[in-house]
Every structure is written in structure tokens, then in C-alpha cells.
Design goal:
The structure is a homodimer. With about 750 residues, chain A is an alpha+beta fold. A 7-stranded mixed sheet of chain A has the order 3-5-1-12-9-10-11, sandwiched between helices. In chain A, strands 7-15-14-13-8 form a 5-stranded mixed sheet, sandwiched between helices. A 4-stranded mixed sheet of chain A has the order 16-26-27-30, with helices on both faces. Chain A folds into 3 domains: about 150 residues, Aldehyde Oxidoreductase, domain 4, CATH 3.30.365.10; about 180 residues, Aldehyde oxidase/xanthine dehydrogenase, a/b hammerhead (Aldehyde Oxidoreductase, domain 3); about 325 residues, Aldehyde Oxidoreductase, domain 4. In chain A, helix 6 links the parallel strand 10 and strand 11. Chain A starts with 17 loop residues before the first helix and ends with a helix. The first copy, chain A, is built from 18 helices and 30 strands. Chain A is about 30% helix and about 25% strand. In chain A, helix 14 packs across helix 15 and helix 16 packs across helix 17.
């Protein structure tokens, strides 16, 4: 069906909402207006640790236009948010403050300005505690416990083979410690939530969010109402990257409580500062790698110890920890692996989901170490990677064996084929510029896998006019998944893209599909759409067969018609078929449920089948560095990824370019800076996020090694390039400068200082 | 499951939205507000027939605040509405005006007042045509054709046995002609529609309506957009009774076109006059009955000729015509039946769906004739009815044989048992008052049956907290079907009513379920909910069995717990089961599709299986008439209906009381009066609708003859009492006065005049 004749699958498609988005016609949450809508603004703690003695809201309540001030004692439910166990995070801090950006009260007023001003009039007596600001401090035996259960959020070990014996057999061992820093999601649209009470006990929540089902669940718990009375609609969302999950839940709960108390619609929109200080960041990390290899370059042992700074609350630290554990060995076939990964609490903004989910951190470290090993072995870096690359039939670090869709070798080969051309442009001896080329290989697990459960609901409805409505429980936050879902439905039902509409997520219309994470939209979500569309197709084919007076097997749906395989000229417009099907009682709507196969996984050793597929990739980055200023120019960036099947190649390019730029930001520009627990650069003047001028000259190479667990063979691509670009950049800088930088970001200033030190 | 232990099914339940409705918290369409919302107001023709020469909108457009004036030439699509073939109705009259209330233009302005005023500034040159005002005129060969295909809207014959031979064998034949007049739906809330454009090609329609899928389909056609981009949400609806179907479609299309043209939300709300002149009425009728019986009272032949005044457009005239055809023989086992029913066009407001759907008209005539026959035979009216009553195994007029759920005899017997007590209170000779008792029997087909297709979609979703969300494609317009659906889901899933929420209809969430008509909500809709709930129950039971480490058959869900049949003390709260089920990948949402069995029906003779069930009923009405003023007092009204199973007895009582009062209005008070094609009483000062003072002293007797095609054995009850009460009233008046009135309404004035004539 998706063979060479398809004009839908594998063909570049405009984003179905592209025109609306670029013309500004799409309505984001902050664009919404409801009668008598009021605004919420949170008062934040302002200090990283302390005991709350008193919160006096009288003065704030006296300000004209202020309608309500809500503190922890006003909450109707258990005052508990957090996406995962241990659910250690309060909606509003009650006794103790654990990070400076933590909300302690919500002011609701007629305008946002009044609410913001009034929030500063709240008198909060908070007795300061000595903040625990680093992982090292937190892990000291005498450290103050940030949570009753201590300062370790989550810690796990992965054990494959016998790493000690592996090192004994190794001819060469390299070892180093790497660090990465906090990164901000920096989406264009800040977080926003609007809650509309219906006066009859039901509420509708419009949110710029990643996981509407999380919001629904937490509102139900915190408001002590049945979840069935809470409807969450994901409004158009201008980026999320993992960021609009916990915080959207927090904002949703606060707005919902206020909406119920006042019986008015309540809008909460974050400004940039709130967005940075009050929502999760990417985990900073310190990672120790030790790699043993034979003199021929075969890696036989790898030991990795990972410390993640998770900030004040768990958020998704447990899953990020697992993800680092599973990916730390890299995309290599290594017999003996030991990884220990630990997330630690500190009195800083909590860290959680962020595109890549721990993989960029370990990939930077792992791929730096690969280059160091290649250097020790005096071996070409790509040759070393190729020698150790995972192939179909090999066991991953968790011992999982994929028989299909392990296209890493092809990505290395294609990069190898292109590098000579790129490197030949090098002008090695030009006085001002230092030229360098970096490579990286990576893998990234697709789907929630054994970390959780992976179910997605999708609905497909064909109207009597033959137009198609698709609903999926996963959010399109800009990544283009609605377009992919439309393609899957259009392909199955044989209609043009214009005839397909894909809904924003609405928790009432589809099965709870969990969070939109783990690059799983295309794979697991696409499978759900495929199943639902096929069911409706069956109805249409049955009806058409009756109309043609033939057997169902002879009917094909394409180009908006039902026709016969053998006789293309006999055809009936799909609206006629759909109308007839309706009046003959054939179902024209289906709600399908896609579930990733049960994982067989040992959570003690972290051995077993964890994901339904991996995306594999190889990146090459060619740079030059101005030896006098440290300025880095990326001359060429090639990202080759095996993604099974590119359903929308244009969308794939967009994802590869965007994710690579995010990796580049992590590697070169971005760092959330703290001073005694207070973020120093909560704005885009001081926090350097890549802008349009930093856009990378990325060439995307699509490798399609058919994945049997995805629709039309597809695997996700949303996250993997972050890790690839970040690691390739670090290796390119090392190649250009001869200096191995062990900490991200490797900024211009860092490079310049190192070059000066070297002189 | 619904056995004697149930605390849900068969128990009186408060309406789940009752509190919201009586406290005014429920938001109706006219209560909605959207940013920059504007108002539409239609200009109407004002004369019953004419040729449109010119519509000059310049002056109207010049009025400050007027944003747009839309006439037929501005429409982007085919300018076509109408629920059924022949689709003869334009959205806006273009060349010819066919009734005085017909819309010829829509004015859109910043306020409704401005729009209304501006509508009068439109200069409409309409060349009057001689209006065709009566059925007799319309049927004359020389009559002007209101539509190109002539003045007959729809005409069908039902032929069972040989009616001529039947009459030959009859010992006695009675014959008469009866008439009924136009009735207005007179819902508390007038029609209202609000269309919100989303700026991205999608629109959302909020409507006080009966059939959201009709609105969606017509908007798609008239705007020339895919139906998948049109979402229709049925807002709280304050009554419909068949009325908010065509007109809501018209208003929806007009508002949608305006909303797209202006890119602003557009609200159209009818005032009472618009509601009466501009939306369908109940068909006026003239019905000739001829009934032949043996001297023992066995009816052996019945011939009925029905003429329905359908007004200017077809609307649902075809289905109403069929309904009269099928029900004209009454609930009796008659060997030879001939019925001819014809709907005719006239230049009056179109007639269409109205609670009872033709059955009240024929039941009034049929039951009047039954009393006339009883009188001729000198037989007790109930005895005559009992002798001829349909029983299980008998063939209906269409030859359909029901083996189960034919409870007519029981309804007659229960009335017979009660009448002595009621009649004993009669004070026959009191000078001022004339006492009388009337009886009627009736049947009313449940489901769309062979008239159309009967499919309903329902979704049931259980959240991790165990709360239940139900969605059904049928509208609750006040009849309480949401409560019934909640009961079905609560019963199946073993939760309390408070844990169940039932959505307003949203066309995106469920299968196109057709119009909410034909008393089919409980039966066909309830079956869909039952199916969906059972699927989700299966998931919960599977999970609970795993948790109990037992077999599924041993698990029972009740009172919000999963427990064991054999050991009630072992139980797990349903939220724990639901959460575990979610995390183990068991589907917790299902979209079910309920389809009435295919009808085996001959549309030439109208013989075959048409409905999935019939509701049967017997009414008795005891009245007294003030001989000096004609004033009628209803002393007692008993309505006994076989409805299979009363899922919510309180809801059944509400339906019986409300429908009976509507029948009483039809029989005694209500008549839309025309003068030369212009309605003379388009307001509640001049149109007499029963008010709270006219509330009948109705006693509802529920007979439960289990219906295998409905959930828990239920059959619908929404419409049948209209016919029963109207017919019983007419017979009571005849009994009291000794005068047979052949035309409804039998008003106080009519009675008084007849009494004077008799003297």
C-alpha cells in the first residue's frame, strides 16, 4: 500500500497547520478569551531553601482588582503534583521551600498586571535554611536532607557481562570525567493554561502542554473531583521539548482551583522569567567513563558512573536516570558493561524531561571517549565506531537483540563516504582559522518501553462526504506529528491530505495515551491511527464491493475514489461510498488502541527487552575556530539517521535541523547559571539560545531500515539528533584545537581561554 | 446484573444535570460569549409566495454597526438544506418565496438590536404570487406548482390483506373524517446557534439542537468544506420535541457562513416570533377512517386516507407520512388494512418532526372511531379495544410479528381495574358540570426502523481514578437521556451515579448517530452505552482477576469496588483496579456502535419488519365540563405504558406527564392560526400553550414487558403519551357532551358553541 506508488507516505508534505501557524491565525492558549476571564499569577519563594512561617495575604487581597489569593492551606486536595512516583512535589509549598522559583501562592485578579503586582504584596515569612546547592554537597553523609527520604532521587545499576574481567582482558583503557550543565527548553511560546468552569461541575482546561492526560489526572486529585468532569484540550503549542509537562500540570491545577472558587475562567500565562525559573530544566551531569579495548579496537568493557543534578523535586528524574543507564554504552556491541546512574536532589529548579532525555549527556561523554580511544589506538574515529557498531542480531547494553531495523552501519558508511569531500575543503594552514571535524554515533530508544507503559488511543471518523477526522492522544507541540497522522490516515483511506483533519488532543475523545515523550508519536501513535483507519477502510471497502457487486479483495481506495484493482476506470467517489456505508449501517468511526509489546525486562540488572526500536545515527560536524576570538563557525553538518521510514521527509528534515541546533546550543552556548541557588540569567538577553543566525548548515541523510513495529516501517526522529550534534561539536572542537574539552557548553570564551593557556 | 439487587437501574434517579438546570448554572447557547462575537438576524419574506426581483442591501450595510448582509447570491455552496430527500429547501430564498417566514437575507452586526433593525432596512422587491394555502387547493389539477415536481411531497400506500373483502364480511361499518391543526413546539428556550471560527479552517458550532450531525453535514455542503473541519457541540438545550432540527441546520449554516466571512464568532438567537414563524410545525391533517367489524366486535377491515398539510418544504414529511401509514390501524390485530397517506405542499411554514411524528393525529382519529364503533356495537369501549388488542405473536399492520414485549393487554387491564374507582367519583347529575371519561389505546414504533438507518455510537472511558465518562451521539434536550445513559454505565461498571459524567454531544467524539428522534435514545442509544461499558468492564475484570489471582468469572464490580462473588469482604477500590489496568495496558475506553437489526421491509406495500419494538399504552382521562362556559377540568388522567423496563422511573413519569400535557395542548388548546398565509398568533399571548396551571393530574402506570432489543429490556417513552392523551381527551369530551368532535383542538369555545347548538 505504501509501495512506490504512494503520493502520501514518503513524500514531502507541508505541515497541515503550517499556514495557520506562520500567518498567526492559529490561536494559542494566551490568545483565548472567555467572558469574565481573570488572571492568575504565582508568588514564588525567592530563596532556595527555607521554612515557611507565615504567608500573609491580607494586604494583597486589599488591592483593587484582586479577587483571591490561594495558599497551600486553601487547597481542597492533597497538594501533590509530580508526574511519577515518588510524587514528592507540592502544588504550592506549604512548610518548606526547596527552590527559589517555587510557587507559594497564587493571586487571582481582574488583570495580569494587578495579579503580578499584588503577588509582591504578599508578606511571606520564610526562615532561610542553608541551601544544598551541588551534587557533592547533597551526597555528603552529613548533608541536610532536602526530602525526608534523603537526597538521592533515584539510583540504578545496569550489569551486562562482567566488566572487571573485561578490563582485565583489555589492551588499552581510557578513562575520563565529563560534565554538562543545565539547559532551558527555550520554547518560543511560554507556558499558558486557561481553565473554564461550566457551572455544572465540569471544567474545560485549555493548555499549552505536552501531556493533557497528566493535567487531567492531577486536577482530579488536587480538586478532589472525578477525572471524568475535567476535560483538557491541548491548544496550539509553540514548542515543549519535554518542558510543558510538570509545569502545565502545576498551572492547570492552580487555575482550576481558582476557577472553581470564583466560578470564572482563569488564565495563567508565564513570562519568560517564570518559564525559566519555575519549570524544569535539563539535568546537569557529571559522568565518569572508563573504556577498555583490544589493540585492534574492539571494545570489550565499559564502565560508566553518572551523577545527575535533579534539582528540588523528582519530576522525571527516575526515567531520565534509566535512560542514561540504558544509553551510556553507546550504540556499540560491548560484551561487558556496567553503568550506575544516580539522580540527586539539590535546592535548585527541578530537572525533568528534555528532548533527548539524558541521552545527549551520555552521548557527549561516550563519543568524546570514543575519540580519545581512537586517538590512543591511532585509529580513524569512524573506523573505530564501525568496528564496534551494533548490527542486526547483536545484543544492546540491556541484552536486547533486534533482528531488523539496526541501520547504524549504513549511517556510518554514508558519513564516511561524504567526509572526504567535506574535509577536502579544509585550508589547514590558514593563519587565523583552526579547522576541525568531529564525528559521533548514537542510538536513542523509541517508545516508553519498560520505563512505563506504552499505549496510545486514536480515532478515525469518516463523514458522509468522505472527509476524514483523526484524533490521537498525543500532542503536536510543533514537531509535525499531526501531519504524520494525517498522512497515515490519508494513505490508508486513499484520500488527499486536504480531506484529512487532525484534532488537537482532547482527553475526552481518546484513550489516555500517556505523555507525548520518547519520540513515540510517529511509531506508537502512528500505529494507532493505522489500526483505526484500517477498520474504517474495511467498512468502506465492504460497501464499495456491494456497489460494484464484486468481492472486497478487488476494491482499492485511492485518490478519493473506490475503484477496482483490475479496472481503474470503474470508480465511485468516496463520498458516495461513505454515504451509502452510513445508510447501510457500516461503522465509519473507530477508536483504536495501540500498545507496544510487553517488555520482558529485569529492573535489577536492567537486562531485557526495553524498547520497540532504536533510532541510530551518525553525525559529522566540520567547524573552524577563530584563534584570536574563539568564535566557532560550523561549515558543514551532516546528520545521517536510520529512522525506518520517513513518512514525511520534510518533517524529518525539520526535526533533524531543530534537534541538532538544540544539541549545538547545549554544546556551545547554553547554560542556566546559578549563584547561591538563584538563577542569574532568566531571560534571553543573558541566556544564549541559538537564534536564526546560528542555524546550522545541516544536511539530513535519511536511512530507511524498515522497522516492523512502526507504521509503514517508521521510527521516531524527534530527539536523537540533539545528542548527535552536541557530541560531534565537542569532537570537532577537539579536532580543531587539539584540546579535549570535558565540559559542556564549550563556549567561545572557554575555547579562547584554553587556546591562550595552550600558547 | 440488573436483577433485584440493582440500586441504579429501575430506581428513581435525579436528573444528572437537574441541579444545574434549575439553578440556572447550566449554560445555554444564548449564554455563551466569545471575544468579538457578533450577531446575526434574518430578514424574512413577509409574504407567503412571490418572485424575488431584487434584494437591495446597501441601505442596511450603511447602518453603523452592521458588518455584513448575506443573500443567496453570496453563498459559497449549493444553497440547500433539508434533512431528507428531496432536499427541496434553500438556505436563503433565491428566486421564489414559498412561505412568509422564509429567510431571504442575514444581517450581521455588532449587536442583535442593530442587526434586527437593519434587517428591516433591506429593500426586498418580491412580486407576489397567488399563494396556495390549503391542501385542497394544492391538489387541484390547475393548482400553481409550489415546487417544480408539483404539490405532492410524498405519498405512500400500506396494503395488508384485502380490505375490500374485509368490508364485505363486516357486520358493521363506521366511517368518519377527522382533522387536526398546526401545533407549535413551544419549547422554553428558543433556537440559538453560535459559530466560532478557529482561524485555521476549522469551526466549532454550539447549538441548541436536536441533531448535531445534521448541522455538521449541511454546513459542510453549504460552505463547501470537509465535514471533518466542522465540529458541532450540542449545548444545553431547553426542549426541542422535533423542532430544533431543520431550523438549527438553517441557523448553523447561516452563522457559519457569516463567521467565515468575518472571521468572528457569530450568534443567532431566535425570538419567539421567529421561532414560531420560521421553524417547522406539527402537520395539520385530514384523515378519513372506515372500520368494519363483526357484530361480536372483531375488527376485520380498516381503511384510512390521510392528507397532511406539510407547508412549503419537505422537511421530515416523508418520514411523518410513513409513520402515519404504519400507525393508522392502531394497536390492533386487523387482518385487512389499507392506508394511504399523502403529504402536500402549501405556502405555509413547513411542517416536520414533532414529538409523536404523525402518530397523535392518526391516534386521535383512530381512537375516536373506536369509540364510535363501540357505541354502534353497544359495547364497552375498553372491551372493544381488549378484544382487538395486539398480543405477542400477532401481526401488526405491516405484518411484523413480535414474540416478546407486546404489553398492550396489560395496559388495558390495569386501566380497566382502575376505572371503576375513578368513575365512582362521578356526580352525574350535578347541574353545572358535565362528566365524562375517555379511553385510548396506542402504539408507537421505537427506533428509526425501515424509515432510515438506526445506528448510534457511544463511548465509555474510565479514568485511572475509576470515574466514568460517557459520550453518546444522541442529544438530551431535556428528556433525561443523559441520566439514563449514566445509569446504564454505572450499572455495568458497578459505580455510583456521582462517578459518571455524560458529555454533551460533540460530533467529533462519536460515530454519526443520526437524529435524536423516534423515542430511540434509551433503546438504541442505551444499547450502545451498554456495549461500550461492557468492553471497558472486561478490562477492569481482567485486571482485578490478576490482582485477586483468580478467574475472571469470579470477579464482580459493584459499589465502586472489584470484589469476589463468593467473598464480598475481599475487595479492591475501583480506582486501584483502573490504575493497574492502565499501567498494564488494558484498554479503558471503548467506542461502541449500536445498530438496530436490518429491517426486512417492502416499501411498495409497507409490509415487513419495520421497528425494533413498539411502545404500547392505554390512557384514561376523566373530565368535567362547565356547561355554561365550556371550561374543561381534567379530574384524573391515568397513562399506562408498556415500556419494557423503566430504567429511571422518575424520568419515565416526567416524560409521561410532559408528553401527555403536550397531547392535551394539541387536543384542547393549541392551534397556529393563519390568515392568507400569515401566522396570526406568533406569540404566547395569542397562542395558547398549556402552562403550569393546566398541568394534568397524571398517574403513570409502568408496565414492564421485557424488550430483548433494549438495554435491560427497555423501550422508549418520549413520544407515545402525546397520542394517548390527545385521543383520550377527545373521547372524554364526547362522553361528557354526547357530541363527537371531529377536529382538534376541541377548545372551550368549540365545546360551548356545540353545547349551545345542541340545546
Amino acid at each position: 500500500m505504501a509501495g512506490k506508488k504512494s503520493t502520501i507516505i514518503g513524500k514531502a508534505q507541508k505541515k497541515i497547520d503550517g499556514i495557520e501557524l506562520v500567518t498567526g491565525r492559529a490561536r494559542f492558549t494566551a490568545d483565548l478569551r472567555f467572558p469574565q476571564m481573570v488572571y492568575g499569577y504565582a508568588r514564588r519563594a525567592g530563596i532556595p531553601a527555607g521554612k515557611i512561617k507565615r504567608i500573609d495575604k491580607e494586604h494583597a487581597l486589599g488591592i483593587p482588582g484582586v479577587l483571591d489569593v490561594i495558599t497551600a492551606s486553601d487547597l481542597p486536595g492533597p497538594n501533590l503534583i509530580g508526574i511519577l512516583p515518588p510524587f514528592d512535589q507540592p502544588l504550592l509549598a506549604e512548610e518548606e521551600v526547596r527552590y527559589a522559583g517555587e510557587s507559594i501562592a497564587l493571586v487571582v485578579a481582574e488583570t495580569r498586571d494587578i495579579a503580578k503586582r499584588a503577588s509582591l504584596s504578599i508578606v511571606a515569612e520564610i526562615e532561610p535554611l542553608e541551601p544544598v546547592l551541588t551534587v557533592d554537597e547533597a551526597l555528603k553523609p552529613e548533608a541536610r536532607k532536602i526530602h525526608p527520604h534523603g537526597n538521592i532521587t533515584f539510583s540504578r545499576k545496569l550489569i551486562k557481562g562482567d566488566v572487571e574481567k573485561g578490563f582485565e582482558r583489555a589492551d588499552i583503557v581510557v578513562e575520563n570525567t565529563y560534565e554538562t550543565s543545565f539547559q532551558e527548553h527555550a520554547y518560543l511560546e511560554t507556558e499558558a493554561v486557561c481553565v473554564v468552569p461550566h457551572g455544572d461541575g465540569r471544567i474545560t482546561v485549555y493548555a499549552s502542554c505536552q501531556s493533557p492526560f497528566h493535567i487531567r489526572g492531577h486536577i482530579a486529585v488536587n480538586l478532589n473531583v472525578p477525572a471524568s468532569r475535567v476535560k483538557v484540550i491541548q491548544a496550539y503549542t509553540g514548542g515543549s521539548f519535554g518542558g510543558k509537562d510538570d509545569v502545565a500540570t502545576e498551572m492547570g491545577c492552580l487555575a482550576a482551583i481558582a476557577a472553581i472558587r470564583l466560578n470564572r475562567a482563569v488564565m495563567i500565562v508565564h513570562d519568560r522569567e517564570e518559564s525559566i525559573i519555575g519549570s524544569n530544566l535539563r539535568h546537569a551531569s557529571r559522568i565518569h567513563y572508563k573504556t577498555g579495548a583490544t589493540k585492534e579496537g574492539k571494545i570489550i568493557a565499559r564502565e560508566v558512573k553518572i551523577l545527575l543534578d535533579g534539582g528540588a523535586y523528582a519530576s522525571e528524574s527516575p526515567f531520565v536516570t534509566m535512560k542514561t543507564l540504558i544509553h551510556a554504552a553507546g550504540p556499540y556491541n560491548i560484551e561487558n558493561v556496567f553503568v550506575e546512574s544516580t539522580a540527586v536532589y539539590t535546592n535548585k529548579t527541578y530537572c525533568g524531561a528534555f528532548r533527548g532525555f539524558g541521552v545527549p549527556q551520555v552521548t557527549f561523554a561516550s563519543e568524546s571517549q570514543m575519540d580519545e580511544l581512537a586517538s590512543e589506538l591511532e585509529m580513524d574515529p569512524l573506523e573505530l565506531r564501525l568496528k564496534n557498531a551494533l548490527k542486526a542480531g547483536d545484543a544492546t547494553a540491556t541484552g536486547q537483540v533486534f533482528r531488523k531495523s539496526v541501520g547504524l552501519v549504513k549511517t556510518i558508511q554514508v558519513i564516511d563516504g561524504k567526509r572526504k569531500h567535506v574535509q577536502s575543503k579544509k585550508l589547514q594552514d590558514e593563519e587565523r582559522w583552526l579547522y576541525g571535524t568531529g564525528f559521533s554515533c548514537l542510538l536513542q530508544g523509541i517508545s516508553n518501553g519498560a520505563e512505563g507503559i506504552d499505549v496510545v488511543g486514536a480515532s478515525v471518523q469518516v463523514s458522509q462526504d468522505g472527509s476524514v477526522l483523526v484524533g490521537v492522544g498525543l500532542s503536536d507541540m510543533g514537531q509535525g506529528s499531526r501531519t504524520v497522522f494525517a498522512q497515515v490516515a490519508a494513505e490508508v483511506l486513499g484520500v488527499s491530505m486536504e480531506r484529512v483533519t487532525v484534532k488537537q488532543v482532547d482527553t475526552e475523545s481518546v484513550h489516555d495515551s500517556g505523555p507525548t515523550i520518547a519520540s513515540r508519536s510517529t511509531t506508537v501513535g502512528g500505529m494507532a491511527v493505522l489500526k483505526a483507519a484500517q477498520e474504517v477502510k474495511n467498512s468502506l471497502v465492504k460497501m464499495a464491493a456491494l456497489m460494484f457487486n464484486t468481492r472486497e479483495e478487488k476494491v482499492v481506495l485511492k485518490d478519493g475514489f473506490a475503484s477496482l484493482y483490475e479496472d481503474d476506470s470503474a470508480r465511485i467517489p468516496l463520498d458516495k461510498v461513505a454515504t451509502a456505508a452510513y445508510w447501510n449501517g457500516f461503522p465509519l468511526m473507530n477508536l483504536a488502541f495501540s500498545k507496544a509489546p510487553d517488555a520482558n525486562y529485569d529492573h535489577q540488572t536492567h537486562q531485557g527487552d526495553i524498547y520497540i526500536a532504536y533510532n541510530f545515527g551518525t553525525h559529522m560536524m566540520r567547524i573552524r575556530i577563530d584563534r584570536y576570538t574563539g568564535k566557532v563557525e560550523v561549515l558543514k553538518h551532516i546528520a545521517a539517521h536510520d529512522l525506518g521510514k520517513a513518512i514525511n521527509p520534510q518533517g524529518v528534515e525539520g526535526q533533524v535541523e531543530g534537534a541538532s541546533l538544540m544539541g549545538f546550543g547545549l554544546a556551545h552556548l547554553e547554560e542556566v547559571l546559578y549563584d547561591r541557588g538563584i538563577i542569574q540569567n532568566p531571560n534571553f538577553a543573558d541566556y544564549a539560545v541559538p537564534g536564526i543566525k546560528e542555524r546550522l548548515p545541516t544536511e539530513t541523510v535519511i536511512i530507511e531500515d524498515y522497522n516492523p513495529t512502526g507504521p509503514f516501517g517508521a521510527k521516531g526522529i524527534g530527539e536523537p539528533p540533539v545528542a548527535g550534534a552536541a557530541a560531534a561539536f565537542a569532537n570537532a572542537v577537539a579536532d580543531a584545537t587539539g584540546i579535549r574539552f570535558l565540559r559542556l557548553p564549550i563556549t567561545r570564551e572557554v575555547i579562547l581561554e584554553a587556546l591562550r593557556g595552550k600558547q
